[in-house]
Amino acid sequence: METEPVQTEEKSDSVTVTQESQQPSDPGGENNKNKSNSEENHTNSDSIKPSDQDPVETVEFKIVYNKQKYDVTFPTNETVAKLKAHVQTLTGVPSAMQKIMFKGLAKDESTLKDLKVTKGAKIMVVGSTLNDVLSVTKPSPQELQETAKATAAAKEPLSQQKEHKRVLDKHGKPDDVPVGIKNVKEPLPHMPLSGMYNKSGGKVRLTFKLEVDQIWLGTKERTEKIPMNSIKAVVSEAIKDHEEYHILGLQLGPTEASRYWIYWVPAQYVDAIKDTVLGKWQYF
Asked: Fewer beta carbons under 10 A from the terminal one: N or C of the chain?
C-alpha cells in the first residue's frame, strides 16, 4: 500500500516530463511571430525605395556673360527657362531679359538634352541688368525732333522713302551680295555676312561674335565692335520688287534717328539677326 504513492509520483513525474518533451517547439508562437515580423520588415525595406530610382543625369558646362565665365552643373532634363532662373542668380540679369545662345537662340521650352549640351560646352547669355536699363541716356530735344520726322516718314515703305530710295537708285544691287530667299527662315551662317552696303554706299560686313556679345560692323575704313545689349531695336523691310532682300536698321541709341542702315540683307537671315540681337523682348 505504501508503494502506490511512490508509483503515482513517478508516474506524475513521468507524465510531466513527457508533457514537457512533447510540448510543440513553437506552434505559431514567438519564433513564428519574429520570423513573420522579420519577413515583413524585409518586405517593407524592399518596398521603401527612393522616388527617383534612376539618378538624375547632369552635365557640366560654362555660362559666359559679359566676358565672365561661370561653372555650372545642371540636370539635362531641365528646360532653358529653368536655366535662365539659375543664371539670374549668377549674373543679376532678369530671366525675362535673357537670351540663351547655344548653336543659335535656345527656346525656353527646350531641355539641355534637346540642345545636346555636352560636358565643357559654353553657353552664351545675352542681356542687361535692370540697372543697365535704367541708366539709358534720356533723348535730347533734337533727337526727339528727328524721331518725329522719322515716324512721319514711316507711313510709306522704307524702300520708297526719299532717303532710302536715293541710296538704292544710286548704288543699285551689289554684284557680290549673297543669294536672297524670301519666305524662308534660316539660322545665321557660320561665316560673316558680306556684300551689303550702308547709307553712304560703303561695303558692310556683319560678324556676330556671340562669345563676347558683340556685332562687328566691318567697312573698308574700320570695324565697329558694338555690344548687342546696346542695340535698342532692329527694324527691317523688304525692298520693293526685290523682296528676297531687306533694308535693315540697327538702332544704336535711344531714338530712331540713331539707326544704322544696311541695304540688301538676304531675307532668309533677317529673323535670325533680330533673334540674335534682341531675342523675343525689347526695352523700348
From this structure: N
